[in-house]
Amino acid sequence: MKSTVSLKGTQEGYQLIIKSSDSLEDAYEELRSLTSQMKKDAHSSKKITFTVKTGLRLLTEDEKEKIKEIVEDNLFEISSFESDVILMEKCLDWHKAASPKLEVRTVRSGQLVEAEGDMLLIGVVHPGGVVRATGNIYIIGELKGTAHAGVNGRENAVVVANFRYNAQVRIGDNVHIIEKKNQQKDEEADTTEFVYVNDLHIIEVSKLEELKDIRPELDNYVGGIYNG
User: Fold this and answer.
1) Which of 27, 35, 52, 111 lies 20 to 30 Å from 207, alpha-carbon distance?
2) Over the chain (228 residues), what is each successive 10-residue block's mean pLDDT?
3) Kind of pairing between the strands at 174-178 and 203-207
């Protein structure tokens, strides 16, 4: 007869693995027997920690407390519960954060456009207009207003835009004013660039072709999910 609960030793401590296909009542009984035997065999007063892994079973808070009551005492403690299941709400939040929000519009003075995760804006941000995202901001068009990326403190975010005009760029808590460039240079070439926070926590403006070298993780998005 196969066990419902198995014990595995790791460098970090022990894992208690509960089969997701078996009854929790059976698991409780086996946990009582297993931990009782381990306490008899213990030769040290040092506390032993367990990670409880439940595979495709997502435990309720009551079920976690029940397992803690069985296992924990002055010798044993549970450090965490891990499963291969995520709640639909968390999955949707993850997908929302990983999928760029597409906006095709003009952002005029006094208007605010926001996004959870990355934003791709096709259009112009006029003076007094604001675009804001918790992730990166990519603007296919002219930025004359304000772009604030990484609004929750994510300093590895970037802003990509045409920076020929006076504009304000914020990344996390860092602020940088883009000054209007020489008119002759504007006519000679496209000035799509990107703004980022360097290792000294200072905002820098760099050429677009340097983006992959400075932020190589941006090349690790597959199907809207970060593959880093």
Assistant:
1) 111
2) 83 87 92 87 79 92 94 90 84 69 93 93 95 94 94 92 89 88 52 90 90 83 45
3) unpaired
